[in-house]
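Work Package 3 (structural annotation) set out to generate three-dimensional models for the target panel prioritized at the project kickoff. During this period the team completed the workflow that converts sequence records into discrete structure tokens, so that structures can be stored uniformly alongside our sequence database. As a representative example, we reproduce one entry of 320 residues exactly as it appears in the project archive.
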Amino acid sequence: MKTVRGTATTRPAFLALPSASFQRGFATVPTIDQIMIEERASAFTKRSLKTSAKLAGLKMAVAMCDLTTLEGKDTPGKVAYLCQKALQPIDAKYGVPPCAAVCVYPNLVKPARRFLGDRSPVKIAAVATGFPSGQYPLRTKLEEVRRTVADGADEIDMVINRSAFLAGEHARMFDEIAATKAACGPAHLKVILETGELVTYDNVRLASEIAMQAGGDFIKTSTGKVSPAATLPVTLVMLEAIRDHFFATGIRIGMKPAGGIRTAKQALAYLVMVKETLGDDWLTPDLFRIGASSLVTDLLMQIVKCAEGNYQAADYFSLP
């Protein structure tokens, strides 16, 4: 099915119909077998990796991390430190690439842009659209997005209106995402589903499909403010939705699990799952990200262990 993106009013033909027809348009979205999805997700944690493959995977995971600070006490100085950490996570002798992005509140995009400049390999992502609740009027959400992009954001992480989705107002959710995509202009759009509030795997699958059809460049599990956040089974449901969407449209959509991924072992399991579900094409920061700042320290500890044969203490690494 071809999806035309770019404006809030452009929809696939079946989405230009009333709500009942809209629902029928998604009637082919498959239901999820809970036991099977959880067993398959668990299997990815049991893969054995050789030392060379493990080291490559650890460095790849660093390159996919979005270093994030979303606290009320955030300052321009803290953001500058985060940007420096993203640019050079560890001493250059270890050959570790920069992180993919820093993720901040909209009011701190300008300080991040001043620090990183216009040619940095590190992207600037900003949360928007009433993060984390999503309970703002649409006009307010769109103005926030336009202002944030004008201030220098490369990526917008929007949060869906879960209230609308759970009330069955799927067309409204679609339209809000499409309008946000239009407001992003050149910036990429990550659509946060907040899967911990969607209750079922079936809801996660349907929300993923709506987000992709509406123009999201990425789908993302969580804000990090709700528990549970990212889990392997939920991420697998979303990866399978991306796979099926690609087969149907030829469009590659990115994936970002966020929240709750704290160890290198967990990160490697996610990379194995991406490889086996979507293939090598998705093993790039352009199509896969991890939103977990605390993860980076453990990744760097494991990289040093692989390189030198022994662990350094955690306080050897500056905390992100």
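The chain is about 45% helix and 10% strand.
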